[in-house]
Amino acid sequence: MPRIGAEAQIRIVAPAAAVNRERVEQGAAVLAASGFQVTYGRHLFDVWHPLGFAGTDHDRAQDLMEALLDPAVAVVLAARGGYGAMRIMDQIDWESLRNAERKIVVGFSDITALHLGLAKLGWPTIHGPNAESDWENPVTRASFLDVLNRRPARLSPTRLKPLGAPQALTGPWRGGNLTLIASLMGTPFQVDCRETVLYVEEVHEAPYRIERMLTQLRLTGVLKEARGLVVGDIQLPPGESKEVAEAIFGEAAETLGIPAWCGFPSGHSEPMWSLPLGWDLAVDREGWVSWDG
């Protein structure tokens, strides 16, 4: 990944749900204070549809394509998740992007759709904060800047917890929000787990729904192709058991004979740790995550 200079341009676009203007501008101000040039997609603050998307599907896709093809833009930052990114996947000109200069695309939650689509082209991305995230949190901000510039060697603030016998893992990570991963199965953008580590995070889903999505991935055959599974931030509904959720992930990995770890803090909690997707990472037997090589 190329190092991104402090004066690089970050373009904020909204591929999914309508945004909170005040929160986006707060995030943009923090990034500008860090030295970045921050620009906005033309339709960033639009609102359209009874479901509240950030502009029409066409306009959201157009803003994204303009950002991805603009030679002056170094980083494309999603404003927020919510719902809506899936709706524009068939309106993105993927062939134009195939030979385009690669940008660093950043976001999480519904932005998983873009992570998976760009992974098909070999583009690395960052599972990290959206523009509406709390950029004033020093950990969130520092983690983003560290990953953007590939420092330090260790990526995880604490050791991961093994779900079964601890086994080292190496290879590129791929994934994001489990619901989006499951929802894109059977489409041209379904996750490709071959020779990769699958990363998943989730919010407000009961353990039985998590188990159902994992079973779907297992029955399609894609999960067995993964080198391993890493579970990130899992936010359960009130009254649901974290231990039960971890046991479900552990059982899925054991059934497939792949190692699994849990506890990487990248998802719907604050602070938000940035996670590079598509780059080679390593989990050692003690559970530390670092750049591999």
Automatic annotation (TrEMBL):
> Which GO terms fall under molecular function for this chain's record?
carboxypeptidase activity; serine-type peptidase activity
Q: What is this protein called?
A: LD-carboxypeptidase
Q: Where in the sequence is the active site?
A: 109 (nucleophile), 201 (charge relay system), 268 (charge relay system)
**A biological process from GO:** proteolysis
Which InterPro entries does UniProt cross-reference here? Carboxypeptidase_A_C_sf (IPR027461), Class_I_gatase-like (IPR029062), LdcA_N (IPR027478), Peptidase_S66_N (IPR040449), Peptidase_S66C (IPR040921), S66_fam (IPR003507)
In terms of CDD domains, this protein maps to: Peptidase_S66
Is Mitochondrion set as a keyword in this record? no
User: Ranges for the LD-carboxypeptidase C-terminal domain?
Assistant: 170-280
Organism of this sequence: Sulfobacillus harzensis
